[in-house]
Amino acid sequence: MGPWARQRRLAAVILIGALSAATAMACASADAATGFPDVSAIDSFVDKQMRKHRIPGISLVVFEDGEATYAKGYGAAGQGQPMTPDTPMIIGSTTKPFTAVSILQLVEQHLVDLDSPVTAYLPWFRVSDPVASTSITVRHLLNHTSGLSELGYNRVLSPDATLEQGVRDLQLARLTAPVGATFQYFNPNYAILALIIEALSGQSYGDYVTEHIFRPLGMTNSYADKEDALEAGLAEGHSKLFGFPVARRPIFRAHLLGAGYIVSTARDLSRFLIAIDNGGVSGDARILSPDSVALMALPPAQVPGTNYGMGWSAGTHRGEPIGGHGGSDEVYSCQTGLLTNQHRGYALLMNEQHLIDGMVASSQLQIGLRDLLIGRQPDEGGISMKLVGIVMLAVFLIALFSTVRSFVRMRGWSREARSLTVRQVAWRIAPHLLVPALTLIVLYRFLGSVLLREPRAWNFRVVGAYFMPDIALLLLLAIVPDIVQGIYMMIAAVRADRSAGRAARPQGNAGRR
User: Fold this and answer.
1) Residues 291-314: what's their mean pLDDT?
2) pLDDT value, residue 17
3) Has residue 21 been placed in a domain?
4) Which of 91, 157, 211, 334 has the highest CB neighbour count under 10 A?
5) Is residue 212 part of a domain?
6) Helix axis angle, 39-53 to 385-409, nearest 10°
7) How many structural domains is the chain composed of?
8) Taking Cα atoms as reference points, which of 244, 265, 354 lies closest to residue 83?
9) Same domain for 299 and 442
10) Is 68 helix (H, G, I), strand (E, B) or coil?
11) For residue 336, is pLDDT > 80?
């Protein structure tokens, strides 16, 4: 392995270490307590965070005791439009509470039994394990304890694949844990639930959610249909490249609609959260009973180490109970929080997404907002995404320089190979092929689980292209040139050996007449 190849890998290691430190720093917090903040405190904090992390647009609504106390848009929604509290964006996995509420509505109507198997409602449902196919229940899906995970199913279907096509494709999914034993976050669990809703209601998932949740709560800018969302003025989404937002076209994955592709606004989400905070009631509308709302926040007792109920995560912030569900897709991010003791909460949407940005900017925004809502002064420190972008760009340029230099140095390899034994040549070539292969295996099998703290396989096609394009470029720069060099070295060594063989071969007819 050449010195420049080692430098490229060292640069990648340094970057991963720096990003890990950034994640830890993002969790830093302030100790000084103050009174409940006024709107100027919220406004000042969000504005500073937006500029600090170079976020193109933020939409925020804060509420207390069933009323919105603060609503504002920051930055731009794209196409020359300002961001507002009513700007629609894809809310990602914040869709899951809506799917959970819909299922629990059907439970209250005695159309669904939480402990019945999926096959009771979708008789054709199959995963790769025949026994598991008839063992997975509706409750398992809601709690993410189906035994399925991305480690056992990581296929990327066409965005136009239907809900049923997506669920039928799960016949290829293998279990990575016993059914009901372990929490494993898996988006298709909620796609299955969405299809059950369609089967029992006789409506499309979008029509059901609109009729039974959006309309009763006055969520007039929420959509489960791609065309309706675009017509309503969907905000322009962004990914980030070295700290700079880059406009990207949103992707609607129809087969994952119930898991992550509802479109909503900060104001509409606050109406939903207020109803949850009020035991399922908002004004004259009731979307769920208090018992069902309580069930949403209740993690399965038989599964240790999880705070996930049914489309709802329950935790604490500085000792205060808090619930909600975050979400993101390729170009948007959404965070919600409900401080149940104070009856205060927030809905925060951003028209950008980056894997590291989510762990730094989104984390700092959420912690600061929660501090403000419990009357504490937020910490405005922590690393900025501007700095993270500069570090990533510097590492990329160093890696690029070392790559070019290492290719230039390859010109003397053919001559060098002639003086080496076959074993020595193999030892020189092997790292260029084996190290990239090992790196790819580690990225696929483990990095997603480490960064996201969940059993996730790494799908480079999706994650690399949208969630971290700059890191993907760096990894490609660290891996692809090594493979190319390894192949070149093999070809050059073989040619050098043949050339040496021809030179050593006696000229049989030389000198004969």
Assistant:
1) 96
2) 53
3) no
4) 91
5) yes
6) 10
7) 2
8) 265
9) no
10) strand
11) yes
CA separation for the pair 351, 87 (Å, rounded): 10
Structural domain including 467 reads 3-16+385-502
461, 219, 236: which is closest to 349 by C-alpha?
236
Q: Is residue 513 part of a domain?
A: no
Asked whether residue 326 carries a pLDDT value surpassing 70, the answer given is yes
The span from the CA of 356 to the CA of 22, in Å, is 9
Distance CA(140)–CA(27), nearest Å, equals 31
- Looking at residue 311, its pLDDT comes to 98
- Taking alpha carbons only, the member of 250, 93, 251, 226 closest to residue 157 is 251
Under a CB-based contact definition with an 8 Å cutoff, are residues 450 and 503 in contact?
A: no
Give 393: exposed, middle or buried? Use CB within 10 Å, 0-12, 13-18, 19+. middle
Largest CA distance in the chain: 113
User: What does the mean pLDDT of the chain come to?
Assistant: 87
Task: State how far the Cα of 49 lies from the Cα of 362, in Å rounded to an integer.
Answer: 9
CB neighbour class for 206 (10 Å; exposed up to 12, middle 13-18, buried from 19): buried
Does residue 120 sit in the same domain as residue 173? yes
From its phi and psi, is residue 35 left (phi > 0), alpha (psi between -120 and 50) or beta?
A: beta
Picking from 164, 179, 68, the residue whose alpha carbon sits closest to that of residue 132 is 179
Residue 188 CA to residue 105 CA, distance in Å, equals 20
% of the chain residues with pLDDT over 90: 64
Q: Which of 70, 64, 462 is nearest to 267 (CA)?
A: 70
Whether residue 329 is found in the same domain as residue 389? no
- Cβ-based neighbours of 398, under 8 Å, separated by 6 or more: 7, 11
Q: Cβ of 129: how many Cβ atoms within 10 Å?
A: 17
Q: Which residues contact 508 (CB under 8 A, 6 or more apart)?
A: none
